[in-house]
Protein: Biotin synthase
Amino acid sequence: MSISTDSSATLTEPELSPELPMSRYDQLADQVLDGQPVSREEALAILDAPDTHVPAILAAGFKIRNRYFGRTVQMNFLMSAKSGLCPEDCSYCSQSKVSEAPVPKHNILKRDDLMKAAAQASEQGAKTYCLVISARGPSEREMKAVEEIVPEIKQKYDLDICACLGLLNKEQADRLKECGVNRVNHNLNTSETHYAEVCTTHTYADRVQTLKHVKAAGMEMCSGGIIGMDEKSDDIVSMAMDLRELGVHSIPLNFLESIDGTPFQGKSNLTPNKCLKALAMFRFVIPDKELRISGGREIHLRSLQPLGLYVANSMFVGDYLTTKGQAPDADRQMIEDLGFEITTKVE
Structure:
């Protein structure tokens, strides 16, 4: 698969504009539901719409969400199986080699710890247990640990398994499929054009290649990005278009937590409405795939968190890798107050 990511191309005037009636978003939703994808210009217009258009955008986006997911919400539980000690220089990450943030540092956890976390995921109503290590890619020891623990978790708990192990080669992807991993997470994070501003120790193409190995092995691809890293609107749309072309199954959308001690310390230009427009744009671009509100939702969406679920159909429950999340009881109450329901069905 070739991915066109030339965000430097000259764009035509957006089809949407603040002067057009808000009913145009509803028309776009109908267009998507009729099988006609939104264009780059239309996606940009959603992302750059005035804040006064947010209610209309969310209402239109909900029509798409409701068609494919009804009022269900999928919960994902994140487990940091190996923390710190990463040789990569991703500027947003507290675990990277260029970070001075005080984070736990440990090699991959032992079986009992991973099983205990799986039990917690099940108790909290998660559909997917996300096993994460900080690394450029998994060592042989780490691969074997995953191969041993995944069948045991799946035998005991009704959980899907998502592995986030860094860059993978074909053999490693095949081994993960063989041991029972359902999906692999490897985020594109931003556009190809902007990627060098975020990381220099590997490339955007490296990340795309890992996703291709995952797809070839027969696992689902989980890939999204981070909003708020000084990217342009066109970068965000390019990332969405690339994810659509790749055919990813699950899209986690993070909002930058500018952690002290990282190169992106103090970087923040997000508002709740900007985050909501980004979520909605992804729903319009990739209408029938799991869209997950991920890291930073508590900080940047704040009191508007519930509105994100009118277009997203998934979220993390509990804490993130090195930062705290909203209490699980608060998440469940938020979902209940919306009239939505948590689904734990493993397909």
